Amino acid sequence: MRQLADCAIAHEVVIEIGAMPVLVRTASPEFLQILENRYGGFVNPSAQPIFEFNVEIVPPGRITDEEDLSVRFEDGRWVLERGDFRAELDPVLRCGSIRQTANPYSIDAAFRILHSLLLAQQGGLLIHAASAVRNGRAFLFAGVSGAGKTTISRLAPPDATLLTDEISYLRREGDGYTAYGTPFAGELAQPGENVRAPLAALYLLAQGPENRIEPVGEADATRAALECILFFAHDRELVERVFQSACDLVRCVPVHRLTFVPDSRVWELIV
């Protein structure tokens, strides 16, 4: 695995998402500042890392010939490639390296892939969904692009805490699921709050002429959940685990179809 020279590693930051801290090392103080600004409330210097990343900053330009994202397992390591970065993750040693330019978007992608792999092994999920906490309970709002995730986030009442308007983070805990805030932002262009709450319901978003809620059967709910799950690796065993996690989710958590107009009164239906 490609590593930074020991003498060059001078700067560290621990970024904790979903109660899973990752230590990032870099020789660049400028990139360290980018990370601290980007991840803000998710920086936790006192957390004990469960994974470590060494980041090598290179001049602007293509890092690999991969146009699209490639995630593959070879020689005991996960290899992540896209035009703007190349990373290797060792699941046994719990460490990795990444070559990229000095921007937060490349390591953002690497973080999402890393967390999707960690969650898959634990029965958790990354979901293309907005989420918020109200009255101590979390609610997910899932849908494809344009379904209204950002809109319903903007309409949230003052007593709701936004976890994300783009990518929701679920961990299996006991008989249910806990939703965590993430720094992965959508159109709102702001990170969620670094808090967590038990998941109370999953709403499948649809925009329409009126506000209404309809129950969704288990089969339809499972299909809809699978369409919204973020998983990047072509690994049969982990894909089967993710499929099982989607089935478990819709059995544990009520799933409704939420049709709404862009009006804050829609939140009166969310209980």
Report on the architecture of this protein:
- With 271 residues, this protein is an alpha+beta fold.
- 24% of the residues lie in helices and 36% in strands.
- It has helices at 29-39, 104-122, 149-154, 218-228, 236-252, and strands at 11-17, 20-26, 51-57, 70-74, 77-82, 85-90, 95-100, 125-134, 137-142, 161-164, 167-173, 176-180, 196-207, 212-215, 255-260.
- A seven-stranded mixed beta sheet has the order 1-2-3-7-6-5-4, covered by helices on one side. The chain has a five-stranded mixed β-barrel with strand order 8-9-13-12-11.
- Helix 1 links the parallel strand 2 and strand 3 (51-57).
- The relative contact order is 0.14.
- The model is unreliable at 1-7 (pLDDT under 50).
Write the layout of secondary structure elements.
Elements lengths: L10 E7 L2 E7 L2 H11 L11 E7 L12 E5 L2 E6 L2 E6 L4 E6 L3 H19 L2 E10 L2 E6 L6 H6 L6 E4 L2 E7 L2 E5 L15 E12 L4 E4 L2 H11 L7 H17 L2 E6 L11
Parallel strand pairs: 2-3, 3-7, 9-13, 13-15
Antiparallel strand pairs: 1-2, 4-5, 5-6, 6-7, 8-9, 8-10, 8-11, 11-12, 12-13, 14-15
Helix pairs in contact: 4-5
